[in-house]
Amino acid sequence: MKYLFILLSFAFVDNRCSESKIDQEAISVEYTTQSRGRYKNIKINKKTISIIDKKGNTPLSKTCSEAHWNILLKALKPINVENMPNLKAPSEDRFFDGAAIARLKIIYDGTTYETQPFDHGNPSKEIKELVKEILSISENIE
Fold first, then answer.
1. What's residue 17's pLDDT?
2. 99-to-19, 31, 44 alpha-carbon distances in Å
3. What are the backbone dihedrals phi and psi of residue 23, each rounded to the nearest 5 degrees, phi first?
4. CA torsion angle for 99, 64, 1, 6 (degrees, to 10)?
5. Which of 82, 115, 118, 123 has fewest C-beta within 10 Å?
6. Which fold has domain 2-141?
7. Helix pair angle (128-141, 66-76), 10° resolution
8. What is the pLDDT of residues 24-36, one digit of tens each?
9. Is 136 helix (H, G, I), strand (E, B) or coil?
10. Does pTM top 0.85 for this prediction?
11. How far apart are CA 99 and CA 119, in angstroms?
12. Where are the domains of the chain?
C-alpha cells in the first residue's frame, strides 16, 4: 500500500516529467450527495465529466478540459488516499436532516479509496479543496 501511495503522489506532482510516469487515464474521482428527495453524483476523469442529478436519470456528460483536469490534479496532490477512510467529518448535521450526506471516492487503477459519510458543504479539511473544485467544475458544465 505504501508503494501505491508513493506512486499516486507522483501522479499529482506539477511537473510534466512525473505526470508521464503515471497513467492519468486510470484516475477518476466521484462525489455523491443525497438526502430525502435529492441526489447528485459527479464523476470526473481525464476525458469526461458526468453528472446524474436524480437517481435513475441518464447522466449529463461533457468533455473534461485539460484546464479542469489540471486543477483537479493539483487539488488531489496533497491528499493521502490511504487515510481517506479514517477522515472524521467536522459536523454531524446529516444525522438529523440538517445536511445532505456526501461521500468522496478516488479510484486509481481499479482500487477505490472512499471517505466515511460527511455533511455536504462541510468536508474534512484534508479533502476540502478537492471537493470545492469538483463542485465548481460540475456547476460550470451544467
1. 37
2. 37, 15, 23
3. -85, 95
4. -120
5. 82
6. Mago nashi protein (3.30.1560)
7. 160
8. 888 999 999 999 8
9. helix
10. no
11. 6
12. 2-141
Dump pLDDT digits (tens) for 59-82: 999 999 999 999 999 999 999 999
Provide, for the chain, the percentages of residues in helix, strand and coil under a 3-state DSSP scheme, each rounded to the nearest 5. Answer: 35, 30, 35
CA-closest candidate to residue 43, choices 103, 127, 115 = 103
Q: What b/e string do you get for 28-66 counting C-beta neighbours within 10 Å, with b at 16 or more?
A: bbbbbbbeeeebbbbbbbbeebbbbeeeeeeeeeeebee
DSSP 47-114: SEEEEE-STTPPPEEEEPPHHHHHHHHHHHTT--GGGGGGPPPS--GGGGTSS-EEEEEEEETTEEEE
Phi and psi angles of residue 16, each rounded to the nearest 5 degrees, phi first: -65, -30
- What's the grid cell of residue 107? 479510484
Count Cβ atoms within 10 A of the Cβ of residue 8 and give its class: 0-12 exposed, 13-18 middle, 19 or more buried. buried
Amino acid at 11: A
Closest listed residue to residue 43, CA positions, set 2, 72, 77: 72
Residue 99 and residue 92: Cα distance in Å, rounded? 8
